[in-house]
Amino acid sequence: MANRVLFAFMGFEALFVIGGIIILVVALLTRAALNGKQNLDNVANNLLLSQGPLTAAIVNAVFVFVTFLLCIPSIAAPTNRTFLKAHGYAVMCCAIFTLVVGLDIWFRTLNTRANLATVWGNQTTETQSLLQQRFNCCGYWNATSPPFVPDNVCTSTLVAANLQGCIGPFSSFANSLNSMIFTADFGIVAIDVFLILGIACLLKDRKEKERYALIDAKTGFGPI
Ligand SMILES: *[C@@H]1O[C@H](CO)[C@@H](O)[C@H](O)[C@H]1NC(C)=O
Fold first, then answer.
1. Which residues form a coiled coil (predicted)?
2. Is 145 in the pocket of ligand 1 (CB under 6 A)?
3. Is residue 218 included in any domain, yes or no?
C-alpha cells in the first residue's frame, strides 16, 4: 500500500516536470523563431505566439523546476512531512501560475478579431503581404480597409476586391492555435492537481505510519 502511494506520487512528479519542460521548450522555440527569418510557413504562427505571455511561461517553467527539486528531500527522507508539505504548497503555486497563463491565452480568443486588427496594423507591409499570401486574402477587414499590399495574391485592385479580407481566415487560424495552446496548458494544470492529491495521500500515509511506529514503540514491538 505504502509503495503504491509513493509510486503514484513519483509518477505524477515525473509528469509534473515533463509539463515544465514542455512549457519551457515551447517558449524558447518561439523566442528563437521570432528572431529568425519570417516566411510563408511560420509567419502566422510566429506573429500569434509572439503575442502570448512568453516571459510568464518561462518564469512558470523555472518555478516548476525549483518546485520539483523540493520533492527530492521528501523522497530521500521517507518519514519527513515538512518538506513534503512545502512541496505541496509550491506545486499549488505552480498550478495557479499555469492556470493564469492559460486563462490569459483563453481570454485573447474571446477577442481575437479586434486584437488581430491591432496586430495587423503594427506589421510591416512585408509581413502583411506574407499573411495575405498565406491566407489568400487582401487587406484586414477587406481589400480597402486597411488598403491591401500589392503582391502575388493581390495583384490589382480588381483582383483584391474579389478576394476576402484576411480577418476571417486569420482569426480562425488564431483561434484554433490558441485553443490548442490553452487546452494543453489546462492539461498541465490537471496534472498539477493530481500531483497535489498524490502529495496529500502520501502525507496521510506517513502520518499513519508515524502513529503506528509510536504505538509499536510503546508496546515494545517492531522498530522504533
Ligand atoms: C470595408 O470595410 C470597412 C470597415 O469594416 C467598411 O466601412 C467598408 O464599407 C468595406 N468596404 C467594402 C468595399 O466592403
1. none
2. yes
3. no
